[in-house]
Amino acid sequence: MPRAPVDNEGTELFYADSGPVLGSTDYTTLVIYHGSAFTGHTFHKLLPFGAKDNIRFVIVNRRDYAGSTKYTDDNLKDLNEGKAAFMERLGAEVAHLLVWFSETHKIPKISADGKSGGFSLMGWSMGNATPMALFAYPDFPIYISSDSIKHTTDPPFLAFGYDQPPEGYNPFTDPNLPTQEAIFVNFGFWVSGYYNHPDLASRSVPSLNFDKRGELPDPNNPKSTGRPFSINNMTEDEMKVNFDGVAASRTEFPMFFPMQPALNVQAQKVLFDEKQVNEVLPKAEVVHIWCTRAQWYCVYGMMETERQYKESLKKGEKVRPIRFVEIEGANHFVHWDEPEKFWAATVNVEKRRDVPHNQEPFSQKTTPGPSLNETRSISNKAAAALLKLTNDTHELAASLCQAGSVAAALFAAVQAQLLSIAPTGDTQAIRTLKVFAFAGLFSNLGATSAYVAWGRTMAWDLFAFCVMSEYTYGSPKLL
């Protein structure tokens, strides 16, 4: 059983490793941390998929889970008292593991264009709190502090320390479950069900499904969308390695209760604190993968994170770039029930094809990342061309719109696009300058003509396309 040291005191974590990708010198290493009660073994169905997409898997069992070192009494005391020192220690352990694995296994460094090599970190469910601690408490060697992708895979609101809506069902305080054992037996069914949330587009708490169980198949109803609990798709032997109620009862309950204030501080630092974002892995991005039929804890976690992210952007704050990737029709165990579907979403993220697979690129549901200027500096020559081009198109658009000639204004946009193809010495900037020209023009159209709503919508969609094209051509990762 392979184990990785995560400190200098003998603490080790068990991990499964798919091994280096044969024939590749630039594969990416994806490190996965599992969630509450269910171990890293639930991700083993992904192991056959990595090599074809140039990905090496490292699936870690967290502390106290099978094969990994248990927490000490002092560790558990910090955990039960909700001390931030516990999370700081986890962050140091993540850093130690990355350094050790990189040096021991000689993984490829990140490529110059950022599209391959290096590490990506993934946390599933409550496991998100572990790699997030790396970003909150950056006490690690300086050469680690480069670029990374941080995946949050269907995290519950508890991973961010958000307050619980009062109307929501809480499986951990259900009065009909008198013991921890009963709570975790119920937890397995509740967390692995399929739920229909009636109005996800509203992003409102009343739109969530607070049922104690997901919808099961109804053989008498041909229109039924019910599906079996994911744990019912596990054999008895699989459950023995997939589920660890003993570890969960020792280590997870404190995360759900006394540790919540510390987790909220941690999440705010990592995602929304401008100073922290600027100083700690500033080029790292967060990709929030969420599943439309997960239980409400995880859907609400997405909704609240998205709300805070949008508010921060409206204020002009330079927060951590977050992209929200939806997996339609999937539940919290999509990696077990539909591993191909889950892996397709993950590979799209890794290759910067992050548009949810049930949506068009310009769909209203697609959440744009940060602006181009926040993620990459354009060369001085290209920037000068951009400034001149946008000024020209603004002036032309204004005069043509004032003259009432929308058609002529559109023709001017085409001309501006052609002009932007002129040599600038930066081929990537050429691709994006064309889009900025259109965005600037249509924004002007929206502000100076009767076509206000249309103009602004076109400007936003084109700007989103520009940002997406930047992600397609640039891919920062760790190391």
UniProtKB/TrEMBL annotation:
Residues 211-231, 354-374 are annotated as: Disordered. It comes from the Eukaryota. Residues 34-344 form the AB hydrolase-1 domain. It holds the Pfam family Abhydrolase_6. Signal peptide: none annotated. Residues 360-374 have a biased composition (Polar residues). This is AB hydrolase-1 domain-containing protein. It comes from Piloderma croceum (strain F 1598). The lineage of its organism: Eukaryota, Fungi, Dikarya, Basidiomycota, Agaricomycotina.
